[in-house]
Description:
- This protein is an alpha/beta fold.
- 38% of the residues lie in helices and 24% in strands.
- The chain folds into 2 domains: 1-83 and 163-252, 3-Layer(aba) Sandwich (Rossmann fold); 91-158, no CATH class.
- A hairpin with a 2-residue loop joins strand 1 (10-19) and strand 2.
- The radius of gyration is 18 Å and the shape is globular.
Amino acid sequence: MAEQHEAPLIVIEGLTKRFSGFTAVDNVSFSVRRGEVLGFLGPNGAGKSTTMRMLAGFMTPTAGRASICGHDVQQDAIAARRVLGFLPEGAPTYPEMTVLAFLRFAGRIRGFSGKELDRRVEHAVGLTTLQGVRLQPVETLSKGFKRRVGLAQALLHDPPVLVLDEPTDGLDPNQKHEVRNLIGQMAAQKAIVISTHILEEVDAVCTRAIIIARGKVVADATPADLQKLAPSGKLDDVFRNLTMPMTMSGAA
């Protein structure tokens, strides 16, 4: 059993996605172990969200594979999704539902009912500080609150793997602080991937960072080691140095 616990919870091998001749993700490989919070960084159009969708099983790769807790996300999709909490870009919900109704709906899909469903929903609402809007229709909420509803549904089943695409998008500074604290509290027991372009997020919560540009991984190191790559020691300078030549050469 110890060997199983030591194995990476996320394994990505040679993931590639092409659209009509355009390569959005180009032979990306990495793994994430329990206790790691991986910041997945890149400029707009670099392939971050496409990689996240393939990892979550919502997009079929052109080549390569991904697995979550040993379950191939394409060949063993249901088992993989049972151990995954996914916050996609845009956090789609049913806008006419209240926050509580939506989370109960998501919980029932996960197989919870009765008191266990009540407990799971209450816990997720508390973690994401949604008590004050729990009876409001989702469509009436601000972008930041909608993001937190999406995060709540990702946490409902307490999954060992979290894949969060721009988790603090639209949040005010206080809300960002709350979400980053929450991620920090959960980190020891989970493998977490955060797709972001907010460099301060990496310093705040990530134990490791991958930078992607034009679909390719251009760096994979701890935030401290990445900072050593620029004379200034600033992560934003490292980011620009690694991604600007590629983005200026015509990447979307």
